[in-house]
Every structure is written in C-alpha cells, then in structure tokens.
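User: Quick sanity check before I run a bigger batch. Here is a single chain. Can you write out its predicted 3D structure?
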Amino acid sequence: MPTLERVTRYAIDAPTVVYLVDEGVSVHPDHRLVAPGSIRLNALGLLLAQVRAGRRAEGDALRCHEKITAMKMRLLSDRVSRRAAWRIAVEHGWDCLEDGECLAIATLQADALVTVDQDLAARAKGLVRLASVRDLEVPG
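Assistant: Done. Predicted structure follows.
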C-alpha cells in the first residue's frame, strides 16, 4: 500500500511574501501557502513604502509584485476567518485587524505560521505554531 505524503499548509503574511520573492525562495511542492485575501494589496503597500523611502526602485517593486501575483497561494477572506480575526484582535487589545487576520488564517487553515515580521511572531507565540522560512524551502 503506498504511503500518503502529508501536505503541510503554511500561513504567511505580506512581509513574508515580499521576502520570499526577494530572496528567490522556492516553496517545496509538498507545502501549500495560505494567506489572507488582502495579502497582495498589503504587499504592494509595503513595496510602495520601500519605494517612497528610497530603498527600492519603482520598477523593481512592480516586478516583485508581479511575481507575488503569480505565486500559488490559497487566499481566504471568508466570513469565518474575518470573524476569527476580529475576535483575536479584540481579545488581545489590538487596534488593527491585519495581524489578527494572519493568525486567524493560521488557526483555521494552516499547520503553522511563517513570518519574517518579528512583531507578528511575538504576537503569535502561544496562539499558533510558528515555523521558519527554511521550513518552506526545497532542499538545495
């Protein structure tokens, strides 16, 4: 009888998706990325901020966004995940729903959260399992 390979689902946030593209990280084919439906717009906002701060050329930012758009991710923005994001933000006294949305997706649809955002990682401790970018990669 053949063994079934376990697909691991990782929730990611906007800073992480930008990092994955910038660093050329190849996600292992046995892994699936899940993210809030707003991740592409949030990533574009991060790229705009980098352009405005002089840390990235506009053309580079737009090329990065095109690669993000082409990435295979399951994007979620359903009623249950939005309600969970609200609950998490309210319970923890957060003023913004963005972190709550990532944690809701991680809780409801993923095996772990991967983030390069140290603030989100600190907020996630004790709420969801954390994994590193290295856990996503194709062994090289």
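The chain has one domain: 8-135.

User: Great, the batch can go ahead then.
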